[in-house]
Amino acid sequence: MATLLHIDSSLNGDASVSREVTRTFRESWQAAHPEGTVIHRDLNADPVPHLTAAGHLAPNLAPEERTEEQRAAYALRDALTSEFEAADAVVIGAPLYNYGVPSTLQAYLNQILIMGRTAGEQSTVAGKPVTVVTSRGGSYRPGTPRAGQDFNEPYLRHLLGTSMGLDVRFIVPELTLARMVPAMADLVELADTSRAEAHQEARAQAGALAARLVA
Question: Which of 8, 56, 59, 205 has the greatest number of CB atoms lying within 10 Å of its CB?
């Protein structure tokens, strides 16, 4: 049986588009693989602590050399990292906040990125499929006024793909604020299309991935 690790970081609850799409991904995964396991980690409801100096240094020390503080900090990092390593696939909701990832997601990634373990040439998670749903209130495509100002995708592509060796794919619903911002009223149709396409892509990716992993 395969395990899906489902991570959400949006603070918008039921109004969150990234949560909508990751939920579609999870439900499609479960429909294709009902015997599988899903672990849901909600970083907004249950945030992980920021990385401390003790946690940062601990992986570089032998267990017997660590202080009590370093042992406790490393125990958290090890638990989070082991959970990530054990998953067969991961879906991450990563909305764009102030041009980057939510601080809760940043804290989580800082905890699980360990050089010589999950990062580097011998990464323990190399090749693991990860789908990132990065929703955006506006549009940052080439040719738009804000082109180049979305730092979510390049950051996550480098950290997850280049540093950790994961097989990363992105689903990008955009213009999610169109129904709330009067100045964006003429973009509602485009927003609805983008949202529908994101759900369709999530269903397709999850179904194909579940079928591949359990074949």
Answer: 8
Question: For 43-77, what is each residue's pLDDT tens digit?
Answer: 999 999 999 999 999 999 999 999 999 999 999 99
Tokens of 185: 């009223």
pTM of the model: 0.95
Per CATH, the architecture of 3-214 is what? 3-Layer(aba) Sandwich (3.40)
**Residue 116 assigned ligand-binding role:** no
Ligand-binding annotation for 207, yes or no, is no
Q: How far from the centroid of its chain's Cα atoms is residue 116's Cα? A: 21
137 is in an annotated binding site: yes
Q: Rounded to whole angstroms, how far apart are CA atoms 201 and 86?
A: 25
Using an 8 Å Cβ cutoff, are 169 and 205 in contact? yes
pLDDT tens-place string over residues 99-127: 999 999 999 999 999 999 999 989 999 99
Q: Is 38 left (phi over 0), alpha (psi -120 to 50) or beta?
A: beta
CB 51 within 8 A of CB 107: yes
Q: How do the domains of the chain map onto residue ranges?
A: 3-214
Residues facing 174 on adjacent strands: 136
Distance in angstroms (rounded) separating the CA atoms of residues 10 and 17: 9
